[in-house]
DNA mismatch repair protein Smr/MutS2
Amino acid sequence: MGGMGPPAGGRGECGVRRRRVLEQDEQALWTAIVRDIRPLARKAARPAAVDAVPPAAPLAPSPADPRDRVARPATMVPRADMPRLDRPAFTLVRPRAEIAIGERGPGLDDTSWRTLVSGKLRPLRTLDLHGQNAHAAFQRLHGFLVQARADNLRCVEVITGLGSGRDGGVLRRELPFWLGRPDLRPLILAVVHPHAANQGSVRILLRRAR
């Protein structure tokens, strides 16, 4: 065995490791072994952890531009101690209709009108409202006229008195509005004062019941 070299991995005389040279058949065998060997896929590198970015703070409102006061009016925030209004602060009131005293109404013939304004048409029933408050006076007036119409009376008289105010008392001022109500106006043909100097009473010509 003196002619053979050192075994694979052996060392020479000087202690230096020598590389063993493969024979031809050994080289062919090695090539066949490593033919189907593929290198292992390298693991994808994990991305470095990124610190969470805090949400951006809301921008502070810019100073109000005086030119924007009309286009962008400020919003009023009600205070807790302010009363809440569930309905409008005002109520629309329709104007009351009043009957015209001393004016001839439609459907009245000349003879009846002249007799009424001259005072020759005497009242068949009289209602005196002296000393009554407005509520009681209206209730009595309403019942008086409805009953007079039901009794087919032609002319009645209502006395309110002059009153102490510049424009007369409450009853005198309210009577034209009471007579102009939708439930009483259809009963009446005309209303006049019995005399120009007597503004504290009126004579009412009623429509005849059909």
